[in-house]
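User: Teach me something about this protein's shape.
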Amino acid sequence: MNDGLVDAFRHNAWATGQLLAVAQNLTEDQLHAEVPGTYGSIIDTLWHTLSSEASYYRRLTGDQPHWYRRGGETPSLAELATYLDDMAQRWDRFLEEPFDAERTLVVPWDDGFDRDVPAGVILAQALHHGNEHRAHICTVLTSLGIPTPDLGVWDYAEATDRARRRAS
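Assistant: First, the predicted structure itself:
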């Protein structure tokens, strides 16, 4: 088991879930609000984050979620919550087995060339990408005057009892 990565990926899913919970209480206008310097609207950023995560997973495993590359319209919040749960379960299963973090995968790069990228870098990108876009969503929420949830790893650890208070 890849113990050191389990909490990292569970935090990733938990933090995105916290933002989905906030999004459930937003109006349509708020869900579609955009702020310069961020990816886009809250709903579009949530969808981009989850679909990209599915892409990283597919690169590593060859297994593509049925909902990946869904065309056209952005999924509903309920669908996004289902996709989030699906990805969390997929990462848990993936991390149950040993893997070679140095296994090289071919990744098409933005400059038009293919790159040889170690699997460990793709895992790091999956986590970083989620953090980056959750920060974008928090920026949009703040611009709307909506309080943002605490999404840090310590917050995850406390909320999931991974950081237990010691008896005095």
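Now, about its shape. The chain has one domain: 3-159. The two ends are 33 Å apart (CA to CA). If you'd like, I can walk through any region in more detail.
User: That's plenty for now, thanks!
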